[in-house]
């Protein structure tokens, strides 16, 4: 069975032009390498990337010259000469950022609006995609996970529950993943998932912290046996301590929280110390900087900037993730060599609350066709004045037609089961946090029993 399961992953690798099977093994070795060795490898890769960017992209050939940055002498410390790379800059310079030889790296275009409500398209390479997946699974392996072990995914990559396409179904099946779409969890749906988990004795659950929390609340106090569970992996939104305690006590196993910023190649996970996130240093170089891009001392909270070390198709130096945190170089008691991101505070990909108390994860809006394909939409913000109202505020690069706005409103209404009054309103500016970061969701009421 084990060989077959790995074979299924090899098939995915073949089809996706990735090497996740071998990278899964190498990542589990890499995390124990010495800090010195990891630093050295990271610096060497950074130099290669700088050479590639200077040679093969119009954008960096120009920028390096303007900033006096010598790619032959590229070092982590010299990166500070380069400005912060924002989503707006990527959009303005999309063609110039694409390497002349981008086809050589198994590129794939991906669309995201990240955690800040700002749609963006970038190219990824087979290798950066490989590491993102392998590092995620390496984080899971702390709970005994091996490639091919069954897991349930409490998340959703498609708009509506139960409408997962054929390709996604095959992809999930090959990974032994039971998809349990979780944007709108009803009591009936919770019951169905609970029964499937118990009947199949699925040992792992991967999902949005808010979805796992809702699920735990739904099964709380019913004295059900979940002793077959071996690990829970949360991602994408903030996991508040009270949520963690409730989920772990109801489901009877520990959580490994995962933090990633896929567009920049950043993937990180907690160890058993639960004191920050070890990040995969073979795929990303992380800096913490102030608003002007000056590096901040260790331990100080600032913008998390990432240089994607394996995206040779579409080099990104000092990409602003929109998240905030600090970096720790102190050796971790677990013995891993990877540096840690600590005091992570900016995962603003929050959730909205429905009148019946259910939560809808912010990523839900990412997957609405009318939003991600809107060429008129620069950025959006979701305001929830009360449990029954939602206001979708948008910054536009051209005047949207009434039909454009109505399409967004309709899709949100449908996706939230008609429980919300929805308005879509073009605005001139959007709210920012104190540190100048855009917010995705603002809830203007107290949620009862909030964590
Ligand atoms: Zn550790």
Looking at this protein, list some descriptive labels:
451 residues, 14 helices, eleven-stranded mixed beta sheet, single chain, alpha/beta, Rossmann fold
General description of the model:
By secondary structure, the protein is of the alpha/beta class. It has 2 domains: 1-349, 3-Layer(aba) Sandwich (Rossmann fold), CATH 3.40.50.12780; 351-443, GMP Synthetase, Chain A, domain 3 (2-Layer Sandwich), CATH 3.30.300.30. The chain has 14 helices and 19 strands. The protein has an 11-stranded mixed β-sheet with strand order 4-3-5-6-7-8-9-13-12-11-10. Strands 18-17-16-19 form a 4-stranded mixed β-sheet, with helices on one face. A two-stranded antiparallel ribbon has the order 1-2. α2 (20-30) packs across α7, α3 (35-56) crosses α4 and α10 crosses α11 (241-251). The chain is globular, with a radius of gyration of 22 Å. The two termini are 41 Å apart.
Number of helices: 14
Strand order of the largest sheet: 4-3-5-6-7-8-9-13-12-11-10
Mean pLDDT over the full residue set: 88
Identify the CATH homologous superfamily of the largest domain.
Answer: ANL, N-terminal domain
- CATH architecture descriptor text of the largest domain: 3-Layer(aba) Sandwich
Listed once per kind, the bound small molecules are: zinc ion
Count of separate structural domains = 2
What is the CATH domain class of the largest domain? Alpha Beta
- Based on helices, strands and strand pairing, what is the structural class? alpha/beta
Span of the ends, CA to CA:
41 Å
Residues in helices, as a percent range: 25-40%
Q: Per the principal axes of the C-alpha atoms, what is the gross shape?
A: globular
Question: Residue ranges: pLDDT <50 for 5 or more in a row?
Answer: 157-162
Gyration radius over CA: 22 Å
Please indicate the percent range of residues in DSSP E strands (runs of 2 or more): 15-25%
Largest sheet: 11 strands, mixed
Q: How many strand segments?
A: 19
Assign the CATH topology of the largest domain. Answer: Rossmann fold
